[in-house]
Write a structure and sequence with these properties.
Blueprint: H1 12-16, E1 22-25, E2 29-31, H2 33-43, H3 48-51, H4 53-59, H5 69-74, H6 76-83, E3 90-103, E4 111-126, E5 129-140, E6 148-158
Antiparallel strand pairs: 1-4, 2-4, 3-6, 4-5, 5-6
């Protein structure tokens, strides 16, 4: 079970007061070669820069294999579960998409990443539907530049 569901929920009013503020920073998540390989199998993208450490060392400027950008993006879910609060009365939340998603720096195999979340918008579209926009930066441990920046949109539904 995701940790977010174990936290006490916040009121809609309290959630909306978080707009414009950093909500939190997730724990570090290891992006090791095994995780990269499993992801490559799932999406059927076996480009050597992801799965062949020896060739990547010889033939790329990275000096090692790197994670798929979409693998890094997919970790936003677990990171958000650690950080973003559940709103009282929520029945479900769904991804609505991204207005912006940029892969700034490659995530080398063996790196750790974490997400930094700032709530940018939280407005009711209907009495039972909240549009939530979150600015996210995924940081790479020990690196100056982030792995990605995103303007992530979710829809939260109430009973």
């Amino acid at each position: 079970m995701n940790e977010v569901w174990k936290k006490p929920p916040v009121s809609l009013e309290a959630y909306q007061k978080m707009v414009g503020h950093e909500v939190g920073v997730s724990s570090w998540h290891l992006v090791d070669q095994n995780r990269i390989n499993v992801y490559a199998d799932v999406i059927e993208d076996h480009q050597f820069i992801h799965i062949d450490p020896e060739r990547a060392k010889k033939e790329t400027a990275f000096g090692t294999t790197v994670a798929h950008g979409f693998l890094t993006m997919s970790l936003l879910s677990i990171m958000s579960y650690e950080v973003m609060p559940v709103i009282e009365g929520t029945t479900m939340g769904v991804n609505y998409g991204f207005d912006k998603l940029r892969f700034i720096s490659p995530v080398k195999a063996g790196s750790r990443v974490r997400g930094r979340f700032t709530l940018a918008e939280a407005k009711l579209r209907k009495p039972t539907e909240l549009l939530s926009r979150t600015n996210v930066t995924v940081e790479i441990d020990g690196e100056d530049k982030p792995a990605l920046v995103a303007d992530w949109i979710g829809l939260i539904y109430f009973a």
